[in-house]
């Protein structure tokens, strides 16, 4: 289980290490809150996909999970493809040294400017989510005298059995074209000028811990590909999106190899089809932790509050999805707080918590580690409550690289202007 068994963050004697560096020394050197990533863990997670998905198959890292330039750089050096959801993410990939022709562009609301930019730099393909978008891309490509390679995102209507906010494959979701409209959409795409239809794609949700929904969705997509072939529309690749889950608590998601082999087995009768995957979380979630310092311990009747310097603006997942993240003191051996504790942040919201009802040993000044913070952690951070966002560090063996400086207060209002009131 390559996606779970590698542990970049382990306790040796009483201290938590990130590869060969203690978490407490990182907190001392770079301050808190601090995101810490392991280069080896990211590479290992990437290799697990890549090794099972040789060309012409392709792995496109979903940039939105963690878009730090150094992480994109690391993956670009490994020859990764990229799945992006905005023009901004295309620009990041290029800035980090990624190849334009390795980019697939997903998202329901691509603007004219984003489509023009994508055509200008020459991305691999657009994953198109509606008929209106097809027409828009066709018109822009035609104007530019270019062919846009497109894939149509079809909603296979399978239940991913995950949190409702991250289930995307049901008909009730805003994503993709409903399966029953798919044939008509493809024949329209085939007739529109400026478009080259190459693929079918879907993305049924995130943090999936079972294979069945992926395989059910794939069966439906293959049936569609058969129907398209009967109409003379030849599809050369099938993009099954991302969504493979990771272990945050006691989930047992399938191993990367099992997940990919089960899908490849279905392609036995389709020698012309390349399989594309778009993993985000599975590449970076367990390759990152968030370090946060205890400011106060506040007792109350039923439970105690461990108040830390990281809040929901730094790490939104617990507040937004009631997500579980393991929280540990980076130095073991302190006495356990006798009551269950909530680990809460400084933000003025009751929903501002990182963990609830835990057993934890902690004192004022201690540094805690929030595990599984590499995906949708920094990427979803904000400046709510006029809080600067944390610094990010990548550890590589004994070395630690600062890959994002902590923001400074002045930067938070640099785009604001005092009004020139007349009286
Ligand atoms: C978010 C997203 C992904 C990545 O999902 P993970 O659960 O992080 O693997 C892949 N493809 C699309 C289209 C997405 O929106």
Automatic annotation (TrEMBL):
<dbReference type="InterPro" id="IPR029066">
    <property type="entry name" value="PLP-binding_barrel"/>
</dbReference>
<feature type="binding site">
    <location>
        <position position="243"/>
    </location>
    <ligand>
        <name>pyridoxal 5'-phosphate</name>
    </ligand>
</feature>
<dbReference type="InterPro" id="IPR000183">
    <property type="entry name" value="Orn/DAP/Arg_de-COase"/>
</dbReference>
<comment type="subunit">
    <text>Homodimer.</text>
</comment>
<comment type="pathway">
    <text>Amino-acid biosynthesis; L-lysine biosynthesis via DAP pathway; L-lysine from DL-2,6-diaminopimelate: step 1/1.</text>
</comment>
<comment type="function">
    <text>Specifically catalyzes the decarboxylation of meso-diaminopimelate (meso-DAP) to L-lysine.</text>
</comment>
<keyword id="KW-0663">Pyridoxal phosphate</keyword>
<feature type="binding site">
    <location>
        <begin position="278"/>
        <end position="281"/>
    </location>
    <ligand>
        <name>pyridoxal 5'-phosphate</name>
    </ligand>
</feature>
<dbReference type="InterPro" id="IPR002986">
    <property type="entry name" value="DAP_deCOOHase_LysA"/>
</dbReference>
<feature type="binding site">
    <location>
        <position position="376"/>
    </location>
    <ligand>
        <name>substrate</name>
    </ligand>
</feature>
<feature type="active site" description="Proton donor">
    <location>
        <position position="348"/>
    </location>
</feature>
<dbReference type="InterPro" id="IPR022644">
    <property type="entry name" value="De-COase2_N"/>
</dbReference>
<dbReference type="GO" id="GO:0030170">
    <property type="term" value="F:pyridoxal phosphate binding"/>
</dbReference>
<comment type="similarity">
    <text>Belongs to the Orn/Lys/Arg decarboxylase class-II family. LysA subfamily.</text>
</comment>
<keyword id="KW-0028">Amino-acid biosynthesis</keyword>
<dbReference type="InterPro" id="IPR022653">
    <property type="entry name" value="De-COase2_pyr-phos_BS"/>
</dbReference>
<feature type="domain" description="Orn/DAP/Arg decarboxylase 2 N-terminal">
    <location>
        <begin position="40"/>
        <end position="285"/>
    </location>
</feature>
<dbReference type="GO" id="GO:0008836">
    <property type="term" value="F:diaminopimelate decarboxylase activity"/>
</dbReference>
<feature type="binding site">
    <location>
        <position position="317"/>
    </location>
    <ligand>
        <name>substrate</name>
    </ligand>
</feature>
<feature type="binding site">
    <location>
        <position position="281"/>
    </location>
    <ligand>
        <name>substrate</name>
    </ligand>
</feature>
<dbReference type="Pfam" id="PF00278">
    <property type="entry name" value="Orn_DAP_Arg_deC"/>
</dbReference>
<feature type="binding site">
    <location>
        <position position="321"/>
    </location>
    <ligand>
        <name>substrate</name>
    </ligand>
</feature>
<dbReference type="InterPro" id="IPR022643">
    <property type="entry name" value="De-COase2_C"/>
</dbReference>
<feature type="binding site">
    <location>
        <position position="376"/>
    </location>
    <ligand>
        <name>pyridoxal 5'-phosphate</name>
    </ligand>
</feature>
<dbReference type="InterPro" id="IPR009006">
    <property type="entry name" value="Ala_racemase/Decarboxylase_C"/>
</dbReference>
<feature type="modified residue" description="N6-(pyridoxal phosphate)lysine">
    <location>
        <position position="64"/>
    </location>
</feature>
<feature type="binding site">
    <location>
        <position position="349"/>
    </location>
    <ligand>
        <name>substrate</name>
    </ligand>
</feature>
<protein>
    <recommendedName>
        <fullName>Diaminopimelate decarboxylase</fullName>
        <ecNumber>4.1.1.20</ecNumber>
    </recommendedName>
</protein>
<keyword id="KW-0457">Lysine biosynthesis</keyword>
<feature type="domain" description="Orn/DAP/Arg decarboxylase 2 C-terminal">
    <location>
        <begin position="35"/>
        <end position="374"/>
    </location>
</feature>
<dbReference type="GO" id="GO:0009089">
    <property type="term" value="P:lysine biosynthetic process via diaminopimelate"/>
</dbReference>
<keyword id="KW-0456">Lyase</keyword>
<keyword id="KW-0210">Decarboxylase</keyword>
<dbReference type="Pfam" id="PF02784">
    <property type="entry name" value="Orn_Arg_deC_N"/>
</dbReference>
């Amino acid at each position: 289980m390559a996606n779970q068994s590698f542990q970049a963050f382990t306790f040796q004697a009483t201290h938590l290490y990130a590869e060969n560096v203690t978490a407490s020394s990182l907190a001392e050197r770079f301050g808190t809150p601090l995101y810490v990533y392991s280069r080896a863990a990211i590479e290992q997670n990437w290799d697990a996909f890549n090794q099972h998905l040789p060309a012409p198959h392709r792995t496109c890292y979903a940039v939105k999970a963690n878009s730090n330039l150094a992480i994109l750089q690391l993956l670009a050096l490994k020859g990764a493809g990229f799945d992006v959801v905005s023009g901004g993410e295309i620009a990041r990939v290029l800035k980090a040294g990624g190849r334009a022709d390795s980019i697939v562009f997903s998202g329901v609301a691509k603007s004219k400017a984003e489509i023009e930019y994508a055509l200008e730099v020459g991305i691999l393909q657009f994953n198109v989510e509606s008929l209106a978008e097809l027409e828009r891309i066709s018109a822009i490509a035609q104007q530019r005298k270019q062919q846009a390679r497109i894939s149509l995102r079809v909603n296979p209507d399978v239940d991913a059995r995950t949190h409702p906010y991250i289930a995307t494959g049901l008909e009730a979701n805003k994503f993709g074209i409903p399966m029953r409209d798919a044939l008509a959409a493809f024949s329209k795409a085939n007739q529109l000028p400026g478009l080259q239809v190459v693929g079918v794609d879907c993305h049924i949700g995130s943090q999936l811990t079972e294979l069945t929904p992926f395989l059910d969705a794939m069966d439906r997509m293959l049936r569609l590909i058969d129907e398209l072939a009967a109409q003379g529309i030849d599809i050369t690749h099938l993009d099954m999106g991302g969504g493979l889950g990771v272990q945050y608590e006691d989930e047992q998601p399938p191993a990367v190899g099992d997940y990919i082999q089960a899908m490849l087995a279905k392609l036995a009768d389709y020698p012309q089809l390349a399989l594309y995957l778009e993993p985000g979380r599975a590449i970076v979630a367990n390759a990152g932790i968030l370090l946060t310092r205890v400011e106060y311990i506040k007792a109350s009747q039923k439970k105690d509050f461990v108040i830390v310097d990281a809040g929901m603006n730094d790490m939104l997942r617990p507040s937004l999805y009631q997500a579980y993240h393991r929280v540990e003191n980076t130095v073991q051996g302190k006495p356990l707080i006798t009551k269950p504790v909530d680990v809460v942040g400084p933000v003025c919201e009751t929903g501002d918590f990182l963990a609830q009802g835990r057993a934890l040993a902690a004192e004022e000044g201690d540094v805690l580690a929030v595990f599984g913070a590499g995906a949708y952690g920094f990427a979803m951070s904000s400046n709510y409550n006029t809080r600067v966002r944390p610094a990010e560090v990548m550890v590589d063996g004994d070395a630690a690289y600062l890959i994002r400086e902590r923001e400074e207060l002045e930067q938070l209002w640099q785009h604001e202007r005092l009004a020139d009131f007349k009286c």
